[in-house]
Amino acid sequence: MLAKEEQGHALKFYDYVVDRGGRVTLQSITQPPADYKSLLDIFEQAYAHEQKVTGMINNLYAAAAKENDFATMSMLKWFIDEQVEEERNASQVVEMLKLAGNHIPAVMMLDGRLGARAE
Hints:
The protein is mainly alpha-helical. It has 4 helices and no strands. The protein has helices at 2-19, 39-66, 70-100, 104-118. Helix 2 runs antiparallel to helix 3 (70-100) and helix 3 (70-100) runs antiparallel to helix 4. The radius of gyration is 17 Å and the shape is elongated. 5% of the residues are buried. The model has no long low-confidence stretch (mean pLDDT 91).
């Protein structure tokens, strides 16, 4: 479910560029890390990544504003709002994992809660 959501976000950018007469050239991306110190480390890195994405979207918005590109600013507004939710979700998981610590039942309860959210 989450991968489909991210794919949908990418398609929003793709469709916008094509609708505006642009051409999209896809390139490879760096493989994400596969080794983590802990479950908390995974979600701390995910939260940091969401913050990075927010910064990139904000930079695009600032460039569009500088060029008086109101259509692009309008399209990016959706992503700005979405990133508030994405950062909040990642931050909440980090905080819940900090509270759970090494208490396996608490981690399992959190896993069930997150799994239900992804459906």
